[in-house]
Write a structure and sequence with these properties.
The protein is α+β, with helices and mostly antiparallel strands and about 160 residues long. It is built from two helices and twelve strands; from the N terminus they run H-E-E-E-E-E-E-E-E-E-E-E-E-H. The structure holds manganese (II) ion.
Length: about 160
């Protein structure tokens, strides 16, 4: 019996170590990945900085919503804009900023849900130092979509 135990033990140790390393690797990967790929880089003038968009669901004759995952690299943000049918933001990664006209800038982070009321000018984006990803849900798209306004200046973004 002693012979068998000494023979098997090193293999048990190797197996245990391998499993433990795998678990650590999975945990690290989960922390760095978002559910949806970041998609294509946005090249229009409605944004400042580097922003990525993955369209997840477009409005159709049955569903009056459009849904996209938007990733803002540090310093990036939308222009000022409003949504005729409103919008809901689900923050899925990182830390960002949200501001409605005439109100203070709010910090938003992974797990936060923001409701943007219809026809209220606002902007959203990353913080100056951290990226942020949110799923943007355009609601009541039968009423209307986004109306784009002027860029958020550096003074506005840094709240000077
Ligand atoms: Mn918006």
């Amino acid at each position: 019996m002693k012979y068998h135990f000494n023979y098997i033990l090193p293999f048990v140790i190797v197996l245990f170590t391998a499993c433990n390393n795998n678990q650590k690797m999975e945990e690290t990967t989960q922390q760095n990945e978002t559910v949806f790929p970041k998609g294509e880089r946005i090249t229009n003038d409605n944004f400042t900085g580097t922003v990525w968009l993955n369209y997840l669901a477009e409005t159709d004759t049955i569903h009056n919503v459009n849904i996209g995952s938007v990733t803002f690299e540090a310093g990036a943000r939308t222009n000022w804009h409003y949504h005729k049918g409103g919008q809901i933001l689900l923050v899925t990664a990182g830390k960002g900023l949200y501001q409605e006209k005439g109100k203070p800038i709010e910090i938003i982070k992974k797990g936060d849900v923001m409701k943007c009321p219809p026809n209220i000018a606002h902007w959203h984006g990353a913080t100056p130092t951290e990226a942020m990803t949110h799923i943007a849900i355009g609601t009541s798209t039968n009423i209307g979509g986004a109306v784009w306004l002027q860029p958020v200046t550096d003074e506005e973004y840094h709240n000077k």
